[in-house]
Recover the amino acids of this structure.
């Protein structure tokens, strides 16, 4: 349970400290999608892993490159 509590604590901290930035980023991506644009994702090294979740996942958005 210590691990789970630690993860929950980190997520709450991220929400408290970065919530506004996450909302702004989500709104920017949603705006691109509303305008029939393409969301480009990029990462190198381990930072590309979140990009893979947006692009290669079955049933993902067609507007992601």
């Amino acid at each position: 349970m210590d691990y789970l509590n630690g993860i929950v604590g980190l997520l709450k901290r991220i929400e408290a400290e970065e919530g506004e930035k996450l909302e702004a980023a989500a709104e920017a991506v949603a705006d691109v999608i509303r305008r029939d644009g393409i969301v480009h994702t990029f990462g190198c090294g381990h930072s590309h892993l979140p990009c893979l979740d947006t692009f290669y996942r079955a049933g993902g958005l067609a507007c992601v490159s």
The two ends are 38 Å apart (CA to CA). Residues 32 and 38 are 7 Å apart (CA to CA).
